[in-house]
Request: fold
Amino acid sequence: MKTPILLTALALLTFSFPTVQAQGPLANPGPPGPTQKSLQQIWDKIGSLEAQVGQLRAQNQALNAALASSDSINLAWNLRAVDTSSGKYSSLAFGADGFPAIAYSGGDPYSRPQSIKFARFNGTSWTISVVESIDEGIFGECGTGVSLSFDPSGNPAVCYRKTTTVFDGAIGRTTQELRFAHHNGSAWTLTTLITGSATVLTGGPESLKFGPDGEPAITYLSGDGSRINYIKRTGGAWNISVVDAVSDSSPYMRSASLVFSPEGVPSIAYSGAEGVKFASLNGPAWSVSSVDPHGFGPSLAYGPDQLPSVAYIKNRAPGSDMSGLALARRFSGNLSWETTLIDSSPRVDGSPESQASLAFGTDGQPIVTYNVAVNLGTAKLNAATFDGINWKLSVIARKSDGTSTISLAVGPDGQPLCTWYERSTNQLYLGWKGSFWSVR
Reply:
């Protein structure tokens, strides 16, 4: 049992400026009296208060990190709607300032205008801006397969698929584009990486990360959904390589997770007709291994041991609809995968759109979020946390269905944040543990 932690209430100093009214002759009253403060003294006071606020925030983060590792204390999940009019395909990441940001699709195929949105917390409130929108009168969807990442300079970048259909009479022509949007500090620049028919780009979501060289890289599905591709920018040019090609397409090949290893090697976990696989770039060629032939919806992360782990939805029997939540880990000197079934509930959502989302806390232990179906029209968003010995399962929120994209990240205070889309109300939700000031 760890020593209980006592939280002490901290109060900030406050002061107010007196109201001054002009009366009498405008004569120089002379130097300030002993009770008056000069402008420099006021600025010095403001600076000292800002330093106190910074110290309080650091103490608050340290306390939350200690709470997260305590055996006897379990912080509750807090919930709020970030956007009350859209929120599909959300992707969550933290900027260099330590505050969260979310990229997501605005609207649905039957509303106008379609858009990609970017929401960012500034320490006090959320600001929402539009990255790109589809023109009025064009049928389409802007923003499936959304993935958010920050470049080494702290500027956000988003990759996504844009689908448009233009009708010539009763005949519609559908075009898909793989898009890359990068903020340069003042505005978004948009680049089309791939253009083709509806059969050229399929599946999703895409996965975007910046490599150790500071250049962006993306994984995406192409063709009929039977190929996983990797595209990276080098010297201003985008180069494509095929990571893996399977013998047939599968509705479960809808998820790819890209991460750069601690050594800077691009690594991908993805699912297809042959289950969950792991690929890493070994020189000029990709090295592919099987993680679990009966899994899908993977999420990849590297632990403090600098070895990969993959969380995913597991089909517990070939051809069975019964699923569970699993975590596969590699250990030092072992190239095979050791799998743990975290949640064996038969109601873990096993639909093709379902997925897991994995991250490691500041204590070095894994955290996984995933969907659990309750009954028709009702689902739960769950979190699984590992304390070094046992897995603890908790409910983040109840939802109308279990098919929305889940995105998980760990904040600087060591506590997890999670985003998801609530279909029944068309809203983007955020759930978090820890400091209220950091995400309210």
In short: DSSP finds one helix and 28 strands in the chain.
